[in-house]
Amino acid sequence: MPALSMIDARQGKIHMLDENGLDLLFRKARTPLRWTTRTIEEDLLRQLYDLTKMGPTSGNCSPARFVFITGSDGRERLRPALSEGNVNRVMGAPVIAIVAHDPLFFEQLPRLCPQENLRSWFASDVGLAEETAFRNGTLQGAYMIMAARALGLDALPISGFDQALVEDAFLAEQGWRANFLLCLGYGDFENQLPRAPRLAFEEACCVIP
Predict the structure, then answer these.
(1) How many CB atoms within 10 Å of residue 13?
(2) Quick check: 72 pLDDT over 50?
(3) Which of 24, 30, 40, 25 has the alpha carbon at shortest distance from 185?
């Protein structure tokens, strides 16, 4: 079922995910530290992106770019950039996505948001463009985590890597900037520790009338 239908909402009807859907995306989803040997086909990666791209971004700017590493050659190019503690968990994943963003994302705005003259805003303000690309690219990376879970995949985001090495090895031709790595596959949860605690609403939230 859809999380929310805006048309139905205006008619007083709200559709929400059922308990199983909420468990799949949030309550029972875990971050894997080990992986099974089950592979991921390219068709599933295309489905994953097709869901990810539907999440909202500022002015539909869509700055995120994704490089999917699926083979041994790509893994070996990535290995030197990984922090020592992340090598095994990253290299064992069936797919490693480099979540990146395009600093020149605004060149696509005449097509993505034709009703507004947004390109000129960002083309004339490097700081604003960098901030917008990083914020919205990160947001799209988070959408990919949830999209992966929705498709039955497990996801492990990783920030322990050398950004410059990753960009030199994989992104230099396009001029993209690396944000974080996202390992994708089917987790091996045998003997995994219980879920770590989370902050309570009262610790992390304020409600201001």
Answers:
(1) 9
(2) yes
(3) 40
